[in-house]
User: Which sequence fits this backbone?
């Protein structure tokens, strides 16, 4: 093809990563052609024949004459020109996401699943359910390298799938075979070693919870009268006898503890004579850790009603109660009430603010795409405190921390 060219030979290649913009070298044959071009004259010609195009269509280099190997502008896209002009113009302050709370909606029945989804991520629930707004779709970057090891997130994915399938009654050997055939593990012995690590941790979790999971797991339907003509309905899964068992491969965190608590509230409110207990179990360095809650008294209906009313507030405006941040604030506030020298705001800030020096790349909740859409990029914790973080965090977590839950090694 090179020898068949007449006056002009044009070769294109992907010279930058489409997600990060990092430079990519040309393929070996193309690199050899560029080396040969450099050797044909006394002065290297690579910079004259190699043109690096920007990734974004509104980049000014696409729209200015003489910058991309042509006397005229490379692009004639009017929309891109408008974008480049706007980008070069003066910056305007970001307006407030909302100037005030939205109008109240008529009281309605609430599903258990919707209530848990709201408490896990109040801002996302508000944007989706009230405004029909979503975050931009993030394309998944596919690696073309052969994996030789799994990172922490990939190990969690394998372990989570194994636990869910085994707890659903699937044969453990068949589950492990299916995982090997998924193509997500490194090849050969490398994949076997990674799988053995996950299986060992999973077996430890399953063995320690065998007594809790005695008998076949069932799902129980609930229908709770909240008063005022409102009801909460749904299904609680993972019920073994009078125990609600939640088993996760990750460490025991606020999400699992809170959803397990809400399931306990629903069952206790619907069937108050059941002496229900909730057991949320996760991994820990010293072995499995459990959050045990229940049995609860008649206050279960009241606590459940308060959470539903809090959801009503969160359907009028973004509720300043991010899950990890609110949990950190509430735990520190409880210690403060007990006389310890702790700062709830400092504890909440550690969960909210992304640490730029974190070597593991773990982002805080301020980097969450839903929170960025509402609060802006790198919003300070003070914005959440001004929006009522302390009130909402304590309203959600006070019954859990002071009455219902005990966290200890299993």
Assistant:
């Amino acid at each position: 093809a090179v020898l068949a060219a007449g006056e002009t030979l044009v070769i294109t290649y992907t010279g930058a990563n489409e997600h990060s913009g990092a430079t990519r070298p040309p393929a070996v044959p193309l690199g050899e052609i560029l080396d040969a071009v450099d050797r044909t004259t006394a002065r290297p010609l690579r910079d004259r024949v190699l043109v690096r195009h920007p990734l974004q269509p509104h980049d000014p280099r696409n729209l200015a004459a003489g910058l991309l190997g042509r006397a005229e502008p490379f692009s004639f896209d009017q929309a891109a020109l408008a974008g480049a002009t706007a980008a070069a113009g003066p910056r305007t302050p970001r307006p407030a996401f909302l100037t005030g709370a939205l109008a109240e909606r008529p009281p309605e029945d609430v599903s258990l699943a919707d209530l848990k989804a709201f408490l896990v991520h109040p801002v996302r629930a508000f944007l989706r359910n009230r405004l029909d707004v979503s975050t931009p779709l993030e394309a998944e970057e596919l690696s073309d390298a052969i994996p030789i090891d799994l990172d922490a997130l990939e190990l969690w994915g394998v372990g989570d799938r194994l636990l869910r399938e085994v707890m659903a009654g699937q044969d453990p050997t068949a589950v492990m075979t299916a995982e090997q055939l998924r193509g997500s593990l490194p090849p050969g012995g490398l994949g076997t070693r990674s799988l053995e690590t996950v299986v060992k941790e999973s077996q430890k979790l399953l063995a320690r919870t065998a007594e809790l999971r005695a008998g076949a797991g069932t799902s129980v339907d609930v229908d709770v009268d909240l008063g005022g003509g409102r009801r909460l309905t749904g299904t609680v899964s993972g019920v073994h006898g009078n125990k609600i068992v939640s088993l996760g491969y990750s460490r025991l965190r606020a999400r699992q503890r809170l959803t397990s608590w809400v399931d306990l509230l629903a069952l206790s409110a619907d069937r108050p004579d059941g002496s229900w207990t909730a057991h949320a179990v996760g991994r820990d360095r010293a072995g499995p850790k459990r959050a045990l809650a229940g049995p609860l008294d008649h206050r279960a209906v009241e606590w459940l009603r308060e959470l539903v009313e809090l959801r009503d507030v969160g359907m009028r405006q973004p509720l300043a109660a991010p899950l990890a941040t609110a949990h950190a604030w509430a735990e520190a506030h409880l210690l403060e009430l007990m006389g310890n020298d702790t700062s709830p705001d400092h504890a909440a800030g550690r969960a909210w603010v992304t640490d730029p020096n974190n070597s593991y790349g773990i982002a805080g909740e301020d980097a969450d795409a839903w929170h960025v859409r509402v609060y802006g990029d790198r919003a300070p914790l003070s914005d959440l405190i001004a929006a009522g973080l302390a009130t909402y965090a304590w309203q959600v977590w006070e019954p859990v921390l002071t009455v219902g839950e005990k966290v200890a090694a299993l």
Observations:
- The mean pLDDT is 85.
- The two ends are 68 Å apart (CA to CA).
- The beta strands are 110-111, 218-227, 230-240, 243-251, 277-283, 289-293, 405-409.
